[in-house]
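lol ok so funny story. i was supposed to be doing the assay writeup but got distracted and ended up predicting the structure for this chain instead. priorities right. anyway since i did it might as well share w the group, maybe its usefull for someone
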Amino acid sequence: MSRNGVVLGALVGVVIGMVGLSFAAVPLYSIFCKATGFGGTPQRATQTASHTLDRSIEIRFNTDVNSELPWVFKPNQRSVTLKVGETGMATFHAHNESATPIVGTAVYNVTPEKAGIYFDKIQCFCFTQQLLRPQESADLPVAFYIDPAIADDHNMDDVSVITLSYTFYRAKSQAFDQAISADNRQAVENQQPAAKTPAATASGAAALAASPRVE
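and the output, tada:
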């Protein structure tokens, strides 16, 4: 093989490697953030804190909706004040203003960002996609606590308020889209409200069970 051929092969290999790394970067970055709290990413906990402290912290709630999602989304309470280690509960109201079923997914973070490593979620609607049918509403819960280990970090001594923020986006889910399309076709054919097909039930069950529905 000529020297030019060797060089060309090496360059092609570098380009392929860079493309592969670019695809891996997003999931790796997400894993890194969840493990370290980087960027204000809260932690996911499987149980409550082992103890509480006398120190109290106010948790404020902030919400936003991407322009492509025709939903109303707001907290049912502006803030709660908890002792460190105490489990708190909050709910958020979501309403689909459109005439079509839509699946949404929420991204989240806390500020100040340095508090992310100590903000633990036990339960959250953001762990799953949420399906709202036309004009349907839902109250979406989140349960959380502040890790008592925060008391051992003197960099956190000045933190008395933490803001938990959510932004809802339209989810890109082929399975849900297929289920919604099946519902819509059935409704048109029968000229009556759509009944769930087996495919719709299988693909949408997790999201529908994730939170109670209210009209």
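Residues 43-171 form a domain with the Ctag/Cox11 (Pfam 04442) fold (CATH 2.60.370.10). DSSP finds three helices and eleven strands in the chain.
back to the writeup now i swear
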